[in-house]
Amino acid sequence: MGSPLGPLMANVFMCHLEEKLTRGGLMPQLYKRYVDDTLARMPSVDAAAEFLSTLNGLHPSLTFTMELPVDNKIPFIGIEIVKNGTKLETQVYRKPTNTGLLLHFQSHTDKRYKDSLLQTMIHRAYSLSSTTEAFNAECAKLRSVFSRLDYPMSVIDSAIKKFLFLNSSADKAERNNDDSSTVRISLPFKDQVAANAVRKQLRDLSHKIGPTLQPVFVSKKLGQDLRPKEIKPSIVNKQCVVYQFSCDLCDADYVGYTARHLHQRIAEHKNSAIGRHFLEAHGNNNLLRESQFTHSKSKRSCQSKFDCLVFEMLFIKKLKPNLNIQTDSIRAKLFV
Questions:
Q1: What range(s) does the GIY-YIG domain occupy (predicted)?
Q2: What was the pLDDT predicted at 129?
Q3: Model confidence over 258-305: pLDDT tens digits?
Q4: What is the mean predicted confidence (pLDDT) over 217-246?
């Protein structure tokens, strides 16, 4: 059993190489890729051959091959693109080796799986056919394929008619529906059972309140798990504290307090006595760094501004920092 990370890593590898081609201006105007299957529009066969050589030259492990249109038709992952004059049309594509081997009607399998297979193939035909003629032609092929698998023709025709009826009803409802009355609700996708239950509940609620409630399910992206998270120093997240500054170029020091996050107060110190010290004593106030500020058990975390002022005053009197002007913080900052 192969690793599920194989296609993911291959896609990441190709995305990296495609970014290089984009930066170098080498990407064609139309370039679509699914894992290792690529569709590109080229002005000529020579240009296609040159781009193929460029792709294979990106890495020694790459070996792409090229397939050109035949009779203005080219297949791409189950779909055939047909050039009709100046327009492009699409239809279902089957490889020449396709045998039409699907779930037999007489197999010992629950009937709901057989019905679901039939509905899936009809939906696929509708989604990949850009014209009504192509869809009708594919339905004729499905009748032939499923009849060989002993599916009753009445079951096949009934499934096709039901699909067309539901699809036409959905199109009509979408045309008649005022988009301004639709409320879309973004919800995390858990599993299909839960999604179906949520749809039913919102549909019932819509009938009661008037506006159409439409769920939009979003899945968790791989990037959310792989996104690097910056580990900030603990001092950055400290707030409502008394702190001490010590210059690492001389013996200057300072004691202060802040009720906000400490990193905000540190940024403001470029224009305070500390900033003036760096400018006058060392010629550059950009030498101020967070590592010069300390907050340890010897300094206090406070519950209020009054607590901060009391402990700041006590530490100023105890440490006698030479950059502090006032010695009585409470009188200077609270009562004045």
A1: 238-325
A2: 93
A3: 877 777 778 787 788 888 888 888 877 777 777 788 765 445 556 677
A4: 63
- Match 């060989």 to its residue by tokens: 148
pLDDT (tens digit, 9 = 90+) per residue, 156-212? 999 999 998 888 766 655 555 555 567 788 888 777 888 888 888 888 888 777 778
pTM of the complete model: 0.48
Task: Kindly state the tokens that stand for 225.
Answer: 């798990």
Burial of 255 (0-12, 13-18, 19+ CB in 10 A): buried
